Amino acid sequence: MTTVLKLGGSVVTEKDSPETVDEAALSRAAEAVADFDGDLILVHGGGSFGHHAAAERGVSTESGTRSAADARAIHDAMGRLNAAVLDALHEAGIEALPVRPLSLASRDADGDLSLPTGSAATMLAEGFVPVLHGDGVVQSGAGVTVTSGDDLVVALAESGALDVDRVGLCSTVPGVLDGDGDVIARIDRFADAADALGGSDATDVTGGMAAKVEKLLALGAPAHVFGPEGLEEFVAGGSPGTVVRGE
Ligand code: IP8
């Protein structure tokens, strides 16, 4: 059994300030993750690294680039963030290794993601923690488009080989919020939460909470959406924030 945990880009970076790591938040997250017992795959988002690099070049999940220089600029920005995340994880005693989607994944013309998971599975078997991240990924007929960390989470969770039974999405909000700002404890159907779900408030080329919930509802495993204050509880096996589970 494997747990997949995504650390949102807004948790580990200053999302409105280009290429700025939130060092304190990142090391707090790494220390919390260090207490996890079992097989763990981490994914992190783009925050002020990937989203700014992609937005500056007009690249998104929908709109690709055929400029290798632009694709590299996005990938390199994500590489700088990935290095900072790995440094913090190593500092916390976690044997983490990078798995970089540009070199591994592809999308078909409909946007369906293909993510080979052999390297992550072997890393787990050898006692490492694979760390993936949102990235530019080559797409049939579109050049390189942006693949969100959320899509990677879904692909990992759907890979039979990894046997994922639990998913966590740690973002800056304490869960999926209703119209009054209260955390919705459980979402089984998109209609339950549709009215309350809005867009993201900072530069985000891959969509806000609504897009996340829609993807999570399609998973076989329960997904927990929570804020940084819920991370310790999730790592300990608890259910902070909102549980999203499709019927
Ligand atoms: O923050 C986006 O990943 P996300 C990655 O998980 C890039 O949506 C390159 C913008």
TrEMBL record:
Instruction: Indicate the annotated site residue(s) for Transition state stabilizer.
Output: 15
EC number(s): the record gives 2.7.4.26
- Gene Ontology CC terms, in alphabetical order: cytosol
Q: Which GO terms describe its molecular function?
A: ATP binding; isopentenyl phosphate kinase activity; kinase activity
Instruction: Name the coiled-coil region(s).
Output: none
The record's annotation in Gene3D superfamilies points to: Acetylglutamate kinase-like (3.40.1160.10)
Catalyzed chemical reaction(s): isopentenyl phosphate + ATP = isopentenyl diphosphate + ADP
Pfam families referenced in this protein's UniProt entry, alphabetically: AA_kinase
The family database entries (CDD domains) matched by this protein are listed as: AAK_FomA-like
Domain of life per record: Archaea
Q: Where does ATP bind?
A: 6-10, 46-47, 208, 212
Q: Name one GO biological process term.
A: terpenoid biosynthetic process
- Could you say which residues bind substrate here? 51, 149
* Alphabetically ordered keywords of this record: ATP-binding, Isoprene biosynthesis, Kinase, Nucleotide-binding, Transferase
The answer, when asked if Kinase is one of the entry's keywords, is: yes
Ranges for domain Aspartate/glutamate/uridylate kinase come to 1-218
Instruction: Please describe the quaternary structure of this protein.
Output: Homodimer.
Family the UniProt entry places it in: Belongs to the isopentenyl phosphate kinase family.
**What is this protein's function?**
Catalyzes the phosphorylation of isopentenyl phosphate (IP) to isopentenyl diphosphate (IPP). Functions in an alternate mevalonate (MVA) pathway leading to IPP, a key precursor for the biosynthesis of isoprenoid compounds such as archaeal membrane lipids.
What is the name of this protein?
A: Isopentenyl phosphate kinase
